[in-house]
Design brief:
The protein is mainly alpha-helical. The protein has 25 helices and 5 strands.
Length: 566
Amino acid sequence: MTKPFDTINYKRPNLKTFVQTSKKYIANLSQSTTIADALTAIQKMNTLRKTFFTMATICEVRYSIDTRDAFYVGENEFFNNNLPYVEELKSEYFRTLINHTLRPELEKKLGHQIFALADQSLKTFSPEIIPLMQRENNLTTEYMKLMATAEFHFRGRKLNLSTIRAYESSTDRVTRREAMETKWKFYETNYEKIGGIFDNLVKTRTEIARTLGFKNFVELGYARLMRTDYNAADVATFREAVQKNIVPIASEIAKRQQNRIGVDKLCYFDEEFRFASGNPTPKGTPEDIIASAKKMYSELSPQTDAFFTTMLNNNLMDLVAKEGKHTGGYCTFLPNNKTPFIFSNFNGTSGDIDVLTHEAGHAFQMFESRNMPLFEYYYPTFEACEIHSMSMEFFTLPYMNLFFGDDTEKYHFAHLAAALQFIPYGVAVDEFQHIIYENPEFTTEQRCAEWKKIEKKYLPHKNYEGNSFLKKGTLWMRQNHIFNTPFYYIDYTLAQICAFQFWQADVKNHKSAWQKYVRLCKKGGSESFLKLVEIAGLKSPFDAKTIEKTIKHVKKELFSVDDAKF
């Protein structure tokens, strides 16, 4: 049932009741001898889990909005400590499901994907790792809290990690440099603390993996992300293709940026400043941006009109940066209410529009698949989820004049260039994580040394002149995915190749491309990543020829623009 987010009543789940009821429904499933009885038990389990995770999600969102709120600090701790027990029940449920005597008939009714997900999930849990999972959850919260409570006094203003970003793209080079130095001074001051949190996470995750019988956490990380149709070897091949086909172009783009902004060297504090005339920035207040977004989605399609109207009417977005708020942006889903929620930190840069369209892509998919019959099918695995979000960024490009006015063409160029340049960074983060979890005994200094090597491979244009801390190889410390969701980051790069394909299809035939996109969204998580790619009419990003062909088109578009005029 849809209702305003701020009016939704939060009540901590009664864990004892949840456990007892879950066991009852699992027993019903185990003892069922007809398809009808089995499906009834599955549906009851589905409903029970939806209610539990609706409360967990409300807690997550309200804690993210204000990490200083004492009540939700306590509730967040409750979920950190008790979600492992819920995971134990899920394993029991999945084991019953995949071993059911009626499995062939159930697969016909429910689809194969739920069984593939169950198989993967069972590899990731045993009751003996519960204390380790609790420790892992609390460590990720510790990092999240540290980032959310960061404060800087800069030019007479009190800023945080989100709001200081507006100064990182200032037209004044001294301001840019001082803003970056201020931000990175926070990381330097907390170097030992951040390094310690990560070291504990690596060691904890490694212990979990070995307890479960894995060689290291790499294998467990892939299983946790429910990757059923590709593996680490496929990802390594993808990274090689990126190094060959994309890194040289990304370096060319960086050189063009250096020439555009008129500096002898493109330093780390210049990277966010893309044009001598200033970066494109959204016009108006956050309220103006939302009004423009409403107009955009009302014109894009009837489906997006219904979706965004629901989001607005029910206060299902918290978009503006403020004190105590967690950094970054995300989209999540309230199962019982059948509505998404968008979280972000507007800071006056073009990134406000990027994050709005990106997270709206996630939210639109969840809205379209909100009536899926299974909890696991509301949204797919992460790399498929990112196709929805990154593609929405491109489908909305024709409406960017609503936000940028005369700077629209400049934004188009900057958006496409940034999308391509992101891919080498994304694979750098992925390779870093593989090395770290293959060598869990590394010290923080050794991890930083590995990051430096990886940067030279994928980000050769990086120049940290004047900043001895970043020269040590510490850039990775800013990337919360490394701490919170290991091995997730490659998903963005895989999806970006798919999103480029949607963009190219949209330019040729909008109606056809949009229909395929909506069809993909409606599928939710009912199929695996590569199957969803196929359903969307896209080519696999693991095929080097796909990357070569797709990027060739992107390069042609970028280099056909006279960016000097900006």
